[in-house]
Amino acid sequence: MSITVLSMDEIINAICLHMAERKGVKVTDVQVELSWEEETGYTAEVWIQGRSQYLVESNMIEAILRYLHSEYNIRAYREDVRLELDEEITAVVNV
Questions:
Q1: Does 11 fall in a domain?
Q2: Domain that holds residue 22
Q3: Along the chain (95 residues), what's the average pLDDT of each consecutive run of 10 residues?
């Protein structure tokens, strides 16, 4: 078993790629801000063409799984990915 850690920038890239594909827009048209709060846990606010949308942790992990496969050729499952908060939000992947 090995561990892969995605930085906050990579998580943002993963969400941008995922949302651009889902909405049929260019990746550069997508802006993402990650956050963690006691009540809501991990969320991402996504802006596309002036509209804002919130993603919950499971949506973020879905984007991370697709990114792992497309960028690293790692086939991981939902239970393999854990979001962590230290100085920034990271994704720890056990595969």
A1: yes
A2: 3-90
A3: 95 98 97 96 97 97 98 96 96 96
